[in-house]
Specification:
CATH architecture of the largest domain: 3-Layer(aba) Sandwich
Radius of gyration: 20 Å
CATH superfamily of the largest domain: P-loop containing nucleotide triphosphate hydrolases
CATH class of the largest domain: Alpha Beta
Strand content: 5-15%
Helix content: 55-70%
Number of helices: 16
CATH topology of the largest domain: Rossmann fold
Structural class: alpha/beta
Largest sheet: 6 strands, parallel
Order of helices and strands: HEHEHEHEHEHHHHHEEHHHHHEH
Shape: globular
Length: 317
């Protein structure tokens, strides 16, 4: 019996800089699979170094899907991702390949792998411009006040200061009714095996974040940031992405290079902590199996290798 007859999807999730991409590629090579990127930043073309997008050499001949989907000045939503990724998964089942979903964007994994349905509402550019002006005049608190009147539950679920999510929730709530009531759950028609990469000692993760940032600098991330801003402007994708937003501050003279580095490390570490908390709560469905691996324990390497062999046997038995 092949993987596709069981309709099994393997999900490699966890915090930034934990080694998800490397593991996904190794699994794909061992299990005759292909990788589906589950990342709200690597979907953007030209944002390569700062998103740690795997190079062609790093991919080792493994096919990767949903990288380089849109330009940085275009809108790409979780609903877009769900539709595109679901189509890829069905194609992989048809071709008897094992889908390996890899990434740290919790909302993307939830809509695809846990069946969260988010209403599709076309962006209202007029409303968005009005709200952008409101933020300039009165700050992000003005958006929070609007959403609190429209849909209080949504406000509690949006990270403080996330202008895009606030605008999106207002946009949907005004057109369809409370955003929080529009989202529903429908179990996907495939099984999911979650591989959650975690750490006991978070300082290990912080060190990995620092190391990766220095490598990105050496690879030219500052030059990449400058080129992107000149070509596409100060888009939401850039302004909401570490380390681009920090290097933009360095390039416009509001931060020193050292300050930009410190801020990038701090924000990436905060992101990693949020990702750990998110994936601790996933999957919501008790029917989905989850294995947790702690990357800072040497014994975990043996356990992971054994699990890989078990997966291979179960998908090809």
């Amino acid at each position: 019996m092949h993987a596709q007859s069981k309709r099994l999807v393997v999900a490699v999730v966890g915090p930034t800089a934990s080694g998800k991409t490397k593991l996904a590629i190794e699994l794909a090579a061992a299990l005759d699979g292909e990788v589906i990127a589950c990342d709200s930043r690597t979907v953007y073309r030209h944002m390569n170094i700062g998103t740690a997008k795997p190079s062609m050499q790093e991919r080792k001949g493994i096919e990767h899907h949903l990288l380089d989907v849109v330009d940085p000045d275009q809108v790409y939503t979780a609903a877009n991702f769900k539709k595109d990724a679901a189509a890829v998964i069905e194609d992989l089942f048809t071709r008897e390949k094992l889908p390996i979903v890899c990434g740290g964007t919790g909302l993307y994994s939830r809509v695809l792998l846990e069946g969260l349905n988010i209403p599709e509402v076309e962006p209202d550019e007029t409303l968005r411009k009005e709200l952008a002006e409101l933020v300039k005049e009165k700050g992000v608190e003005a958006l929070e006040e609007i959403l609190e009147k429209l849909d209080p539950p949504s406000l509690t679920r949006i990270e403080k200061g996330d202008v895009f999510r606030l605008v999106r929730a207002i946009e949907v709530s005004q057109k369809l009714g409370p955003f929080s009531q529009m989202a529903t759950m429908q179990r996907p028609d495939f099984d999911v095996l979650w591989l959650f990469l975690n750490v006991h000692n978070r300082e290990i993760l912080r060190e990995a974040i620092v190391k990766r940032l220095l490598v990105q600098e050496a690879d030219g991330v500052i030059e990449e940031t400058k080129a992107l801003s000149q070509r596409f402007g100060l888009t939401r994708a850039l302004l909401n992405s570490v380390p681009y937003k920090e290097y933009l501050a360095y390039l416009d003279g509001t931060m020193s290079l050292e300050q930009a580095r410190e801020e990038a490390v701090k924000h990436n570490y905060q992101l990693a902590r949020r990702q750990i908390m998110w994936f601790r709560k996933s999957p919501k469905s008790l029917e989905q199996k989850r294995l947790t691996f702690f990357i800072d324990e040497s014994t975990e390497a043996e356990r992971l290798s054994e699990s890989m062999r078990e997966i291979l046997q179960s998908t090809r038995a």
